């Protein structure tokens, strides 16, 4: 992500055209904290730092908030609540209505081969529809490729809660450079084997064969998030946790 400044904005502040990505090859994508007011105004709806990603031609407001607001394109960890005739009802946040997941929104799914997910099952999914007039809709398949692309049921493992801001930092393409998060890379360097799925909704699923390693990864994430640890503090934390496993 390339950005030269991260100005603070307040709800209703005008945004300078100089801060808006201007790619002609991709449509401008607005993330959390911003609203398009026709015909051409972009207005913050929360207070925070304005972030722009010129490579993806996107922008959003980074802010600390405990309430997740679904945004199309977000990757999330969702829990199955119940199944209807054609779709699942899932929980993505305590503060949002259940999101729907069509039975056929999985790779190669048909009425006979679709996954049979019981209440409590977890899925890694993408938000495809989110507005104030309709319940959110999610999918576990890429609409462009028909492949799962890493989405689908999350089997076993454990889920850990993190702040929304920390989840966004983990999801950055360059989380080490831009997000200042090295903890996962450091844990892997200590020989811990694990899988991870980070949800923009503040849910992080950690899987693997070693339950102790899963717990250590989750603890490292929580302590990094809650303590606001910098890179050097993350290194000390991982060394301490790794030493405790030996």
Automatic annotation (TrEMBL):
Residues 1-26 are annotated as: Disordered. It comes from the Eukaryota. It is found in: Cytoplasm; Nucleus, Nucleolus. Its main location: cytoplasm. It holds the Pfam family RRP40_S1. GO terms for molecular function: exonuclease activity. Residues 28-67 form the Exosome complex exonuclease Rrp40 N-terminal domain. Residues 157-211 form the K Homology domain. InterPro entries: Exosome_RNA_bind1/RRP40/RRP4, KH_dom_type_1, KH_dom_type_1_sf, NA-bd_OB-fold, RRP40_KH-I, Rrp40_N_euk, Rrp40_S1. Transmembrane segments: none annotated. Keywords: Cytoplasm, Exonuclease, Exosome, Hydrolase, Nuclease, Nucleus, RNA-binding, rRNA processing. Gene3D superfamilies: 2.40.50.100, K Homology domain, type 1, Nucleic acid-binding proteins. Belongs to the RRP40 family. This is Ribosomal RNA-processing protein 40.
């Amino acid at each position: 992500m390339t950005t030269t400044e991260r100005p603070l904005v307040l709800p209703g502040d005008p945004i300078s055209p100089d801060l808006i990505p201007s790619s002609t090859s991709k449509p401008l994508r607005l993330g959390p904290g911003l609203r398009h007011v026709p015909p051409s105004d972009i207005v913050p709806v929360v207070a925070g730092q304005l972030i722009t990603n010129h490579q993806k031609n996107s922008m959003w407001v980074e802010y600390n908030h405990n309430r997740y607001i679904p945004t199309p394109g977000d990757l999330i960890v969702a829990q199955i609540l119940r199944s209807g005739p054609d779709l699942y009802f899932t929980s993505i946040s305590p503060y949002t209505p259940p999101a729907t997941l069509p039975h056929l929104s999985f790779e190669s799914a048909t009425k006979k081969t679709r996954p049979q997910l019981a209440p409590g099952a977890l899925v890694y999914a993408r938000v495809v529809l989110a507005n104030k007039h309709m319940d959110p809709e999610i999918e576990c398949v890429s609409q462009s490729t028909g492949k799962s692309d890493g989405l689908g049921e999350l089997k076993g493992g454990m889920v850990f809660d993190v702040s929304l801001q920390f989840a966004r930092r983990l999801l950055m393409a360059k989380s080490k450079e831009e997000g200042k998060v090295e903890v996962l890379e450091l844990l892997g360097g200590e020989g811990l084997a694990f899988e991870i799925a980070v949800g923009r909704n503040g849910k992080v699923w950690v899987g693997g064969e070693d339950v102790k390693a899963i717990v250590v990864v989750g603890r490292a994430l929580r302590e990094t998030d809650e303590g606001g640890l910098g890179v050097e503090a993350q290194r000390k934390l991982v060394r301490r946790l790794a030493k405790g496993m030996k």
